[in-house]
Structures are given as structure tokens and as C-alpha cells.
Write the C-alpha cells for this entry.
Amino acid sequence: MPPTPEQERLIQEQNLAILATLRKDGTPQLTPINYAYVGGKVLISTTRDRAKYGNVRRDQRVTLNIIHPSGRPYVTIYGRARIEEDDIVDGTAEIVRRMNRPVADDLEERLRADKRILLIVTPERFAP
């Protein structure tokens, strides 16, 4: 089910969200993240040493909560994440642009040195 036009607008306008992944014991791990929404997927850059990386390797189910700065509206995205370790430059560059920062000429080298990856979230449901 695709997002409503209002949900789509909020997802496109914002670049901060709270990401929930599941720890080994099943409890949620909540992390504030920057993201980009491209082609109906949510892109999140992280490193291999972060909890969310290990959590997604174990269990692909994730939830994102995107809130307008005023507190309303908000949208919750339920979906599954996959880890992309190779093709990460364009997606990460889009996240950087959405943060209103310049994209470094040596972005690819920096990403590889930092052992960065992309989490690519495929939404399955949008709420409320």
C-alpha cells in the first residue's frame, strides 16, 4: 500500500527520523537518523560497527517514525531493510544533499575508509 499524498509530502520534506531495529532479545533499538527517500525506498547510511547494522543482519524488520517539527503530522513506516555494502555512493550523496551539506569530491574514499554501508528500507505499510 503506497503512502497517502500527505504522508508522501512529509517523507519527502523531512530528512530526520527515528529508526527502530530489533536487538537479539527482541527489544527495540531506537536511533535518530538522517535519510533520503528515493524511488519509494528509504536510504540510511551507517557503519558496520553500529548496533543497527548488526540488528538488521539478524532481523530485517524495521520501523521509522518521521515527525513534522511541529509534532503533527507524522508518519510511521513499517518495512524491511536490506544491507548494501557495494553500491553506496549515490545513495549516500543523496542523504548528504538532503542534509544541506556539500558532497565531497572524495566521498567514495571516505565511505570506504569509514566502512559505511547503506540500509535500504522497502516500506510495507504506512501509518497512521
The helical segments are 5-13, 51-58, 89-98, 107-113. Strands lie at 16-22, 28-34, 36-38, 41-47, 61-67, 74-84, 116-127. Residues 89-98 form the longest helix (10 residues).
